[in-house]
Design a protein that fits this description.
The protein is mainly alpha-helical. It has one domain. Helices cover 81% and strands 0% of the residues. The protein is built from four helices and no strands. The longest helix has 32 residues. The radius of gyration is 17 Å and the shape is elongated. It starts with a helix and ends with a helix.
């Protein structure tokens, strides 16, 4: 039963996180496409919101998994899967961001970005680290 509970947690929190991440990126694209562009303050706010999402949702997933009777490693796996889903949305939306940035007149670093095996390995490492962070925080705050 714990396996089904973990899959439900991954689906619910992963889909919610992916939708929220896509919404944040979409809003940033709209702001950057306006006549005056996105200000550094708004870019910082979007970055902070993204980091909060990438930490809070895996932590909530791990708390729900631990509350369902699973152990730390199951909570770690579910938190990592949720982060991976959220990062996948970022990777899928990256070409749209690169096109928008390069159409603004200046060449951006994103326009020369190519998804390769080392980039995917670093992304996987980031997902594992964020999953470990979320499950560790969840282990500290979850009811025993």
């Amino acid at each position: 039963m714990t396996c089904v509970n973990s899959l439900v947690n991954i689906a619910v929190f992963g889909i919610v996180g992916a939708i929220m991440m896509a919404a944040l990126l979409g809003l940033l694209l709209v702001l950057s496409g306006s006549s005056r562009g996105a200000s550094p303050r708004s870019r910082t706010a979007f970055g902070v919101a993204s980091v909060v999402l990438l930490v809070a949702l895996p932590t909530l997933t791990a708390v729900a998994t631990l509350a369902g009777g699973a152990g730390f490693w199951a909570a770690f796996a579910t938190a990592t899967c949720v982060v991976a889903l959220m990062c996948a949305v970022n990777v899928v939306m990256l070409p749209a961001v690169a096109r928008r940035q390069s159409s603004g007149g200046g060449q951006s670093a994103l326009s020369s970005f190519r998804l390769s095996l080392p980039v995917l390995a670093v992304l996987l490492l980031v997902c594992v680290v964020l999953g470990l962070l979320g499950s560790s925080v969840a282990a500290l705050i979850a009811p025993a």
